[in-house]
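Quick illustration, no need to memorize.
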Amino acid sequence: MRRVYIETSVWGMVAPGQSPALQEPTVEFLDQCAARKHQPYISAVVADELRQAGVEVQQVTIAKLGAVDPHILAITPASEALAERFLREGVLPPRRLDDARHVACALVHEIDLLVSWNYRHIANVRKAEAFNAIAVLSGLRGALEIHTPLEVLEWT
């Protein structure tokens, strides 16, 4: 079973008013996680970002979080240092520290797959290559795959 870190943009996609083209595969992917076809993980960064959403979004996402029941990964000094390195090396702009924390946490905890709808800062081939290269230079495995929920569904 693949260990999957589910980034905040995926959880936010279950909220009302989202595009059905993105929401439907998101819900199907999260249902697979709840059925344990994938081993789901989040970090405190996800919880912090969800707290910034409106009340209705929080209610829906908290209900889905409860159904999926992901394991919670610690934000460690090693993951914080790696996130800061992503910013220093220019992989992400300084204002995207939380995005860097998601990726760093997944890499430090040797998660197999990070799932995100954030194409600009996380879910694209160039970023994945850069994240993994910096992880290897930092002494980590550097084998994190990054995909959207839709891409993951295509494998199952």
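The first helix runs from residue 8 to 12.
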